[in-house]
Amino acid sequence: QVQLVESGGGLVQPGGSLRLSCAASGSILNIYAMAWYRQAPGKQRESVATITRYISTDYANSVKGRFTISRDNAKNTVYLQMNSLKPEDTAVYYCNADVLTPYSERAYYWGQGTQVTVSS
Prior knowledge:
Blueprint: E1 2-7, E2 10-12, E3 18-26, E4 30-39, E5 46-51, E6 57-59, E7 67-72, E8 77-82, E9 91-100, E10 106-110, E11 114-118
Parallel strand pairs: 2-11
Antiparallel strand pairs: 1-3, 3-8, 4-5, 4-9, 5-6, 7-8, 9-10, 9-11
């Protein structure tokens, strides 16, 4: 079993900042890519940012220059620093990880989501 637990969401004013964290635990041998997705009401879930084990990153155009993804491999944790937040960033943010277990099983796992609301 692998669990992903997100934290750091909340209510912030436009132009503000938040930092999300996602810690993976359980039967983990290796974690390949880790990513953040988001889903706004009435919209499909979309990729926000991805980071490989070797720290190669990719961002959605809508967040480039404002969000930064990072990870701590020793802690099996991924972070999302969100600056200059806009109302359109309001969504539930989900963590995703590509995990290899000690049983040679590889699968994608999701966290439970954390709400980010940008409003004055």
